[in-house]
């Protein structure tokens, strides 16, 4: 299970490898990685969900770097692709030589956590933490933010179930 300080070192090393090849990379973090690294919600995460240019050798370097830490080959993965737009609102988190690391903005991360709403995961706890960070005090305020990004009925209904649990409505 990658710890936050090790994740940062691994990303720094991926950047150094890219730079040595004369390349520049860009990664957009989301999910548990953002919660762990950006929002200090926990010390580690199961994996690092990210989007990045597939033609860039980031994946190959992630396998090599991950092996050094004893991580599974998919520790850095693009599984989030199915749930997130590539043009999701983001901000620069950290820049290493050879690699810029962005993260989705907190509002979008909250919307993603509400949409996923997996009880067996940390989605509920993550959403609760983000609600506090964003100063949202009611389910109505949270749905207003959520609807900026996802506004189909199924997604809104799932978000409402998560919010009912958090706000004990």
Order of helices and strands: HEHEHEEEHHHH
Parts with pLDDT < 50 across at least 5 consecutive residues: none
What portion of residues is helical?
40-55%
What average pLDDT do the residues reach?
91
Strand content: 5-15%
Write down the Rg: 16 Å
Q: How is the quaternary structure best described? A: single chain
The count of strands amounts to: 5
Give the helix/strand class: alpha/beta
Describe it.
- With 169 residues, this protein is an alpha/beta fold.
- It has two domains: 4-104, no CATH class; 107-167.
- 50% of the residues lie in helices and 15% in strands.
- The chain has a five-stranded mixed beta sheet.
- Helix 4 (106-116) crosses helix 6 (139-149) and helix 4 (106-116) packs across helix 7.
- It is elongated.
- The model has no long low-confidence stretch (mean pLDDT 91).
Task: Furnish the topology, listing elements before pairings.
Elements: H1 4-20, E1 25-29, H2 31-37, E2 48-52, H3 58-69, E3 76-77, E4 90-96, E5 99-104, H4 106-116, H5 123-134, H6 139-149, H7 153-167
List its salient traits.
2 domains, 7 helices, 50% helix, alpha/beta, 169 residues
């Amino acid at each position: 299970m990658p710890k936050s300080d090790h994740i940062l070192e691994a990303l720094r090393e991926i950047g150094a490898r890219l730079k040595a090849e004369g390349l520049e990379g860009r990664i957009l973090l989301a999910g548990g990685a953002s919660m762990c690294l950006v929002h200090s919600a926990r010390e580690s995460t199961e994996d690092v969900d990210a989007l990045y240019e597939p033609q860039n050798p980031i994946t190959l370097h992630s396998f090599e770097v991950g092996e050094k830490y004893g991580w599974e080959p998919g520790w850095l993965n693009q599984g989030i692709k199915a749930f997130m737009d590539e043009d999701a609102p983001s901000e620069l988190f950290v820049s290493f030589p050879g690699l810029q690391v962005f993260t989705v903005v907190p509002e979008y991360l909250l919307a993603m956590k509400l949409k996923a709403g997996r009880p067996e995961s940390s989605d509920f706890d993550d959403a609760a933490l983000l609600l506090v960070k964003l100063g949202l005090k009611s389910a109505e305020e949270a749905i207003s933010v959520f609807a900026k990004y996802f506004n189909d009925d199924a997604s809104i209904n799932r978000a409402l179930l998560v919010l009912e649990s958090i706000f004990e409505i």
